[in-house]
Amino acid sequence: MNGRQRTILLAVIMGVLGLLVVFDRMGGSAPEESEESGLAAARDAYVREAMALERERTEVAQREAWERVVSEARARRGQLDDQLLVGQTRELAAEELRNRVKRAMRELGLNENGLRAQTLPVTGQNAADTPIQVISSEIAFVHSDPAVVYQLIERLENLSGVRTMISSVKITGPGRALKPAQIDVNLTIHALALIGKETGA
Question: Among 28, 165, 195, 200, which has the minimal tally of Cβ within 10 Å of its Cβ?
Fold first, then answer.
């Protein structure tokens, strides 16, 4: 699946979510049994599409492409400084990544105070003693507008001044038990960082 097809699929999923949100807020217009049946069918369709999207975004070819980007960045150190997070330590670089995510949320009117971010442990890809490292973080938040969530995902994949990749996206909801209707979003974002260099140095 190419980038355009993935964008169309995301738009379809977000469209389904949008309809569910509107349906929840309006309380539905059909009898209770019909309402529950229709909502369940729509939710099942959404789950199938979301699972297909997640598999697509995490397939081996994408990971191999990302690993090539990491290797090239390490080989071309000094030429790509303007595309890397900068931090004296991995912790500071991870904090900068969180700040970038929060900034993107603010620009879209999302409440950054509800953001939950957890830096993932070092993997084998980072085992080498090199200043070019991959910072990975799990991001979670709740929002009621699927269209804005989609915009945020697109923006995080194209952050200005830093190479990023989103390896997984999980979107749950909305459900009738949630009032107002909301969706839970969990994603994993990776960014290239230059470790051992102070910001502005």
Answer: 200
CATH of 3-195, one of 2.30.30.100, 3.20.80.10, 3.30.70.60, 3.40.50.720: 3.30.70.60
Residue matched to tokens 């599409």: 49
pTM: 0.59
Count of CB atoms within 10 A of residue 200's CB? 5
Whether 21 has a pLDDT exceeding 70, the answer reads no
Q: Is the pLDDT of residue 88 over 50?
A: yes
Torsion-angle region of 87 (φ positive above 0: left; ψ -120 to 50: alpha; else: beta): beta
